């Protein structure tokens, strides 16, 4: 095969920045902008807190269209900063809160809708995200013909890693969105700047100033105003806002995340007086709780109650550093300043799996994250807390005579029964179930390490025939009653695919351009499923924290980059052999149970998990690199692959029916389809 570089196109030759740094900058900006859009739109449009991959799918569509548009237009993509400015205006003018009262959907709350309806605002966000990302993608795509295929792909991956690193650093610093806007404005300014011929054509400065500089600076100004006037704290998960006041002459701090009332910092005495559920775990547990673990410690009220009930040691686990910081500074009882309290900023399930401590009382204190793990279509931050395996982990961390309890507003009676039956399956006996209020199904579920360690009030009647079985680590979808994909998702995904087909035809021309790259399209479908399985698997093994998520995404890109470097520098086996290695890796990942990985010590678990997860990813990208290197039209081939990733994002929802492990089977079938569509001329040459 030949990897000769093509003659540079006129746009590249005219650009003042050399092709390699331009490609790194454009690809880094593309990924950074995608992450920023997902994060920022979700903080202002609450629908997107539960449809995080909605913007991701729009981004994939836009990136694919950007590559397919290369060669069809010589004008620079000035439309991207203009549409971004329009999107920011719409989102800030029409923020949304949501009435989540549909039983089949994976969320719940009692709030009502304020702002545009979902059927209006979601298409606007989806289409705007696609158009915005199409601009940077087109700039990346224009660099590809100027370099050998794999060299271009290599620099694209390096830029993507830089984009993840930049966004991760800003998340670590809790930087408000104005900094995201500044980076976007700078990237637009550099990438869309007039080229070498600009001095001979002053007219080229007019579109640059009007379509790049003005909208970019306007976006920065709008985001600065939001950052200053909202008084918000930007955690890696939420936009956190709070207000302080008094209720019945008691100081109260109301905390909202992404526009949803989430927690209250209230003195322990007042909370116990106002709501009975907070004291019931201590009444149902026989042993006086001296050592207490609180998962979902948040602003500190549950910690303050534990201290008031005589706890001598409290481990307070909270996933969000800003909620913990807010509790430390605003809670009237100052529980986090007490020397008996130790704070752990981590995922609750991960803490249970790692700690060797034993407790008199383990409490899941309203752990409802109100958001999904980025990059996973249906996994919430707390999903792995409510599985049967998690309840067993909690049981194993109890002292003899200790007790476990959880409370929340569960909304549906079947949800209370499902959780109670999950606890029953894990502990081996019926728990105490106290429905404190039927309005919102405010309930407390308590189970002693043994039946003698709990003292119940009225006996729980037990699960009914209509109660769903306990959720498990493979299908951790607590709020999904039936093994099905809710209609709202099916309708939405169907519309997304229909719009995508139309957009590809309008922007990229006839579909026959991509027909020779049908196998690359399927490689994109399967790889997105493989990536989703990796994200969810590492979330279970190491926690759903943003740090773990960033490391996994970076690790995937490193594995892809390693595959490209191996393909560039060494003679690799033929494609049929590599497909065999890929399928063997998928079989290994399917055979290795999560329970076995969780039983390993943490260092050994990390080694085993990386090996199992990244072997098929590495093999899949050797397959892609070998095939991509021989393509006649690199930009069209890459665009087809990215559009396949968008379809793979839609297929993620199959996990609601078959579980995350089942996605490996779907991925294997799709990879076999890609092998079957491999051009005959390519297989022997490889």
TrEMBL record:
Domain of life per record: Bacteria
TM stretches of this protein: 23-42, 48-71, 78-98, 118-140, 152-172, 178-193, 205-225, 488-508, 520-540, 546-564, 576-596, 602-624, 660-678
Keywords: Membrane, Polyamine biosynthesis, Transmembrane, Transmembrane helix
SUPFAM superfamilies according to UniProt: S-adenosyl-L-methionine-dependent methyltransferases (SSF53335)
Gene3D superfamilies noted in UniProt: Vaccinia Virus protein VP39
GO biological process: polyamine biosynthetic process
InterPro entries (alphabetical): SAM-dependent_MTases_sf
Listed Pfam families: Spermine_synth
PANTHER family reported in the protein's UniProt record: THERMOSPERMINE SYNTHASE ACAULIS5 (PTHR43317)
Protein name (record): Spermidine synthase
